[in-house]
From TrEMBL:
GO terms for molecular function: manganese ion transmembrane transporter activity. It comes from Pseudothermotoga hypogea DSM 11164 = NBRC 106472. One of its GO terms (biological process) is intracellular manganese ion homeostasis. One of its GO terms (cellular component) is endomembrane system. The chain crosses the membrane at residues 65-84, 156-174, 194-214, 221-242, 254-276. InterPro entries: Ccc1_fam, Ferritin-like_SF, Ferritin_CCC1_N. Keywords: Membrane, Transmembrane, Transmembrane helix. This is Membrane protein. Pfam families: VIT1 (PF01988).
């Protein structure tokens, strides 16, 4: 099989896969159903045009279909669509190489249409989630690091972390509510505050969890740091895909801030323990 034939078959498989994904997403998202259905029909049209060139029927990649639908359910249809869009951009290069200009024109229209679909509530309030999660990561990772060295008792550190985290979550939610209310605009202050508070609380519980199940505070701290890195990795990937930003830059920036605060707090805890001569 020639190289061009293999590329065409790969493109053909991708078009059929995307046709099925868009069709199912159109049924899931009634608000954007018309646009998604239009894109689905175009993908099927692309498939048929490619079939004329290859003279072969190609089955879709069902694991990709399941994967994108799972992502749409878990992280929102916008996130799934943005990942699909990245594949569209790769496809455009293949179409250029094979001079499939008509298909390329449709693909470019798809990209513009997809950008207009970013109207999910969770995306609208992504700033609030970033605020809550960022603040929790920086403050609590640092606080837990300092408390670990100052107290060296997992259960007391866990209790202190939960109390500190709950108080901070309520404070952050209240601040976000007042800020949104004074700004006006389309965002609902109460809903924005809830997104901020929930993101903060989930992060708090995830970071404090190691101290609740382990009796060795230093091991708990290592686990907490690993959890913090995991949260940063997942969330920055989500934000980078949705907002089309540089993932590596966002990840390293957020990681350096959180870990930098944790290291400083760690040494503050060490100094405080020696200065006040506290044994717990």
């Amino acid at each position: 099989m020639k190289k061009d034939q293999r590329i065409l078959l790969k493109m053909q498989k991708a078009e059929m896969t995307e046709y099925i994904v868009y069709t199912k997403l159109a049924k899931m998202d009634k608000k954007n159903s018309e646009v998604l259905s239009k894109i689905a029909k175009d993908e099927l049209s692309h498939y048929k045009k490619l079939k004329i060139l290859t003279q072969i029927d190609v089955a879709p990649s069902w694991w990709r279909v399941i994967f994108y639908l799972f992502l749409a359910k878990l992280l929102g249809i916008t996130f799934a669509l943005k990942l699909m869009e990245q594949n569209e951009e790769k496809a455009q290069k293949s179409y250029k190489a094979l001079e499939q200009t008509e298909i390329l024109s449709d693909e470019e229209e798809h990209e513009k249409a997809l950008l207009k679909l970013i109207d999910e509530e969770r995306i609208e309030y992504i700033g609030s989630m970033v605020l809550g999660l960022n603040d929790a990561l920086v403050e609590l990772t640092g606080a837990l690091a300092g408390l670990t060295l100052a107290i060296r008792n997992s259960k007391i550190v866990a209790l202190s972390g939960i109390i500190t985290g709950l108080a901070a979550a309520l404070s952050m939610s209240a601040s976000d509510y007042l800020s949104r209310k004074s700004e006006g605009g389309n965002k609902k202050p109460l809903r924005s505050a809830l997104y901020t508070g929930i993101a903060y609380l989930i992060t708090v519980l995830f970071l404090v969890f190691p101290y609740m199940v382990l009796d060795r505070p230093m091991v708990s701290l290592y686990w907490t740091i690993a959890n913090a890195v995991l949260v940063i990795l997942i969330f920055t990937f989500f934000v980078s895909v949705v907002k089309e930003e540089n993932f590596k830059k966002n990840f390293l920036e957020m990681l350096s801030i959180s870990m930098g605060v944790a290291v400083i707090s760690f040494f503050i805890g060490m100094v405080a323990r020696r200065f006040f001569n506290i044994e717990v």
